Amino acid sequence: MDQVNVGIVGLGNVGSGTLAILAENAGGIAEKLGCRLNVTAVCSRTVDTKEIPAALGPVKRTTDWREVVADPNVQIVAELVGGTTVAREIIDAAIAAGKSVVTANKELMALAGAEIWDRAIKSGINLAMEASVAGGIPIHAVLREGISGDRVVALQGILNGTSNYILTEIERHGSDLKTVLAEAQRLGYAEADPSADIDGYDARAKLALLAALAFGERIVPGDIHTEGIRRIHPIDFQYAHRLGHTIKLLCAARRTPEGFFLSVRPALIPQSTILASVQGAYNAIWVRGQYGQDTFYYGRGAGPNPTGVAVVSDLMRVAREIRSGSPDRVSPFAHAKLGENRPLPITQQRTGYYLRFRVHDRPGIIAELAGILAKLDISLDAVLQLPSDSKHNLPFVITLEPSLEQSVQEAVTKMAALDFMVEPPLALPMEKPL
User: Fold this and answer.
1) Residue of 99, 106, 206, 248 marked catalytic
2) Does 414 qualify as catalytic in the annotation?
3) Which helix (H) or strand (E) segment is 338 a member of?
4) Which of 49, 145, 240, 314 is deepest in the core (most CB within 10 A)?
């Protein structure tokens, strides 16, 4: 066999980047693979408006994905449309037709990837999904094979480039989130509806996949405690810097003797850590193994070319299997079978905390807040107040010693009801480096 035939469904940014790499790097791919990756068919709702690289040769164009899946010449179907409805139909149909699948679909893989993999194995085909997390960073391959001999005990990551770009700009320029978000949308970093990015849902789906690979449990996005960045203001960076920290939308997974914790939320992290230096639209993942200790992975988390590289690399991996006829596959989830253990409630976790308040100033406020904390066995660490001209919207910060999260949540709820509060307190964990 001198070529393996590919059908690509979806010609958005990722699909177009994939086609460009397959065309421009065809020679290098063939040298590594020992055969050509031949694009036989492409599908898009607007396929007639898409520019297909001439170097690919004759390519069937269609607006109906079923024609790609049914094409007898297509051996691998690349699903690059995203979402959980049509994409699921495409993948199910490809598996039923005995065709291997490459996908960049984090939402679908996080929701049903383990089930889809079980079906793929029974059908004797492969499923590859490297492009679903962190764009050009091969973090799936790392967890699946690169450090598979280790036992992952924790990982921390910045998995959403849009939110990291927004936080970076707020920190650099002191602009509010609304202003920075508008600029991110103008530059193409953020969608018209930015909820998936700034509310943490995109990062949550990615963490669900990485945690499944790391811990061997069947994890879905709904298992993960998630908070977004809408309440982060420039003043929070000013206080964070006074504490020697910065703020990131942090994806965290940690194994304990009792079970494992998962969360996606803005957190203070020390400025001395390597994650604190990750700026703009970049992604990074810090993994700690029981035996191999720390490894760190950094790069572009999105974009047509970085993500296209991940798709093409998956196509090459699947093509090798098709050519060799090998029945031995490494599960995309790194484990032969996933367990059913659920994450521990985040309320059982203990960590330090940053509480930021906006109040109508009056005597006795600190004493009243400290009283609430004391009744819940929470130890106050420090009180910080930067100079302010406003007595009717006065910001200040209290940091807490490591405390049970449930107690902190109860305290914040009680504090929010106090009559001098301008808004509910903002509570952010102060994460220690791995």
Assistant:
1) 206
2) no
3) none
4) 314
